[in-house]
């Protein structure tokens, strides 16, 4: 899985994502999420407002709830979701922002595509942390798209679009459109 970042100047940056280990644990109720979210945010040099912390809380709650019915993540413990998913997602921000600003880019106009979004990581967490950025979550499995659409609605994110399609099909369609303009 990857995160493709494109600015208005058409710069692209691919970041590989780590696969998480397998294992099942019983779901625990959400406890002290605000404290955990604050720790997560500060550990990745990103500070989340109270509203953003609430959005992350809503996401984690939805993820753990839906994960009981469908396999979204192997991590089923709230504190592990915070450390293994939320903190890891937020950790992408500083190097991503440095990559754009070091080339003189304006980070306020960044558009990101989370290819193979799955459970919406890191896309949804990044969308919470950077509401001025535009995010597209590209996922091929309809049931995961349904979850992503639900999460976007529950989190009240206006900067996220969910696209249910295969990345290969999207790229092929763009190539075909580009070639038709050349003829």
TrEMBL record:
<protein>
    <recommendedName>
        <fullName>Ribosomal RNA small subunit methyltransferase G</fullName>
    </recommendedName>
</protein>
<keyword id="KW-0698">rRNA processing</keyword>
<dbReference type="InterPro" id="IPR029063">
    <property type="entry name" value="SAM-dependent_MTases_sf"/>
</dbReference>
<keyword id="KW-0963">Cytoplasm</keyword>
<dbReference type="GO" id="GO:0005829">
    <property type="term" value="C:cytosol"/>
</dbReference>
<dbReference type="GO" id="GO:0070043">
    <property type="term" value="F:rRNA (guanine-N7-)-methyltransferase activity"/>
</dbReference>
<dbReference type="InterPro" id="IPR003682">
    <property type="entry name" value="rRNA_ssu_MeTfrase_G"/>
</dbReference>
<keyword id="KW-0808">Transferase</keyword>
<dbReference type="Pfam" id="PF02527">
    <property type="entry name" value="GidB"/>
</dbReference>
């Amino acid at each position: 899985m990857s995160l493709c970042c494109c600015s208005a100047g058409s710069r692209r940056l691919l970041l590989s994502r780590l696969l998480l280990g397998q294992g099942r644990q019983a779901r625990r109720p959400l406890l002290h999420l605000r404290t955990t979210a604050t720790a997560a945010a500060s550990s990745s040099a990103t500070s989340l407002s109270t509203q953003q912390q609430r959005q992350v809380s809503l996401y984690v709650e939805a993820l753990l709830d839906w994960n009981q019915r469908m396999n979204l993540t192997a991590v089923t413990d709230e504190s592990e979701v915070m450390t293994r998913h939320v903190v890891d997602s937020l950790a992408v921000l500083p190097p991503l922002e440095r990559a754009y600003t070091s080339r003189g880019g304006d980070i306020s106009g960044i558009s990101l595509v989370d290819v193979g979004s799955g459970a919406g990581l890191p896309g949804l967490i990044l969308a919470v942390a950077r509401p001025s950025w535009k995010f597209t979550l590209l996922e091929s499995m309809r049931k995961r798209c349904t979850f992503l659409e639900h999460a976007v609605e529950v989190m009240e994110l206006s900067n996220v679009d969910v696209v249910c399609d295969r990345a290969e099909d999207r790229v092929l369609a763009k190539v075909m459109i580009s070639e038709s303009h050349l003829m």
